[in-house]
Amino acid sequence: MIRLLVAALSIAFAGGASAQGLSGPSSVEADLEPGDGLTDPQYRSDFPRNIAPGWFRWKDRVAEEGFRFNIDYLALGQSSNADLGTGEAASGIARFYGSWQATERGSLTFKIEDRHSYTDVAPQFLGLDGGALSITGTAFNDNGLLLTNLFWTQRAENGSWALQVGQIDVTDFVDIYGLVSPYSGFQNLSFNTNPTMNTPNQGLGIAGGVKLSENFYAVASVSDASADPSDPNFDVFSDGNLFKSLELGYTSGFDRIYFDNIHLTLWHADAADDGSRPEDYGAAFSAAWFVGNTWMPFFRAGASKGTAALYDRSVSAGLGYYGRNTDLAGLGLNWAEARGIDGDQFTLEAFYRFSISPGLQITPSLQFISDPLLNPTQDSITLFGLRTRIVF
Question: Is 12 exposed, middle or buried (CB count within 10 Å of its CB: 0-12, 13-18, 19+)?
Fold first, then answer.
């Protein structure tokens, strides 16, 4: 896989075209930009800029010098009617993230997070706690202080390639589409990064993207399969426990690469030396298209060979709606099969994100899980959620 990455980058050095980098909808780059890439968004309010104008004027001046940053806080509460478990969960994420444009074509990206739970069970595990083989609150866990990004990005002058090296999060760019972010879109893992993928935690890695033609691109990565962002390990490549990915995709234009996108992703994760994680590999397919800058139908599927990923096979389909005031609605349906467990599990999620301002969003959601695989005595589980995000 390392040879594939080098080969892809060598193609880019040979000439070519323009590409956007590797920043997807859940990345620092996306979180630093208000809105969803729509023209002339109409916000309901200017909060919190209107209550701290001096702070935001200073941020704007610093940004003009090449240093952009945000401080935000997200909270998620969920309630479930499951016969098993606690039936409720709540947690928060405090984040400090940004980007320093150090040179004309090189930048340093960072993100520090504190993930904490208000309840005994965090939302990420509420579905499992109630008997559903489902991650119902992606990223909302109790993992404490984490270094999730600290990497250098180098881009070609003509935009034909981009390279990231350092502490990376592969879910920022592996098998993504417009609704992938658990901070602004769907909350269930079935509609985030493909649940058949054994993607690692944030850790040391290298990733590269290259434009192959006017519409085709390739992205490859090698990263720490045993990463722990609470205790970064910089000896990963000597240890040899690696996660590798290669993605080939098509887009209508590189300014819309994560809105109009069809791709195939191949991946492989080494077994852990201590036996805690078996070897795993698989493939995923994704197709999403932004129709009229308003509607985004999507279809996603994946299959894996191993026991480390959540599902053995998974198929998801749904629709997103983008409003001019940057409201976002989503409806998704997933079918999944797990290795070693009889039966199928169906998951439906619906949400509506109210964008009160670029700095304040409120998102109620509903998840319905039919035939929960870990609780065969209950026909279905219904879960209500409320997520908030405020940005300073």
Answer: buried
Chain centroid to Cα 79, Å, comes to 23
Q: What is the pLDDT of residue 12?
A: 35
Query: Rounded to two decimals, what is the model's pTM?
Result: 0.90
Backbone Cα Rg of the chain: 20
Task: Tell me how far apart the alpha carbons of residues 136 and 192 are, in angstroms, rounded to a whole number.
Answer: 11
Contacts 24+ apart (CB under 8 A), 2-6: 2/222, 2/244, 4/220, 4/246, 5/206, 5/207, 5/208, 5/220, 5/221, 5/222
DSSP string, 109-147: EEEEEEEEESSSS-GGGHHHHTT-S--SSTT-S--EEEE
For 285-320, the pLDDT digits (tens) are 999 999 998 999 999 999 999 888 899 999 999 999
DSSP three-state, residue 319? strand
Please tell me which residue, 32 or 5, carries the higher pLDDT value: 32
Largest CA distance in the chain: 60
Which single residue is written with the structure tokens 């209950």?
378
Q: How far is CA 250 from the centre of its chain?
A: 19
Q: How many CB atoms lie within 10 A of CB 142?
A: 16
User: CB under 8 Å to 155, separation ≥6 — which residues?
Assistant: 21, 105, 106, 161, 162, 163
The residue with greater pLDDT, 8 or 143, is 143
**For residue 34, what is the DSSP state?**
-
C-alpha to C-alpha distance for 112 and 145, rounded to whole angstroms? 7
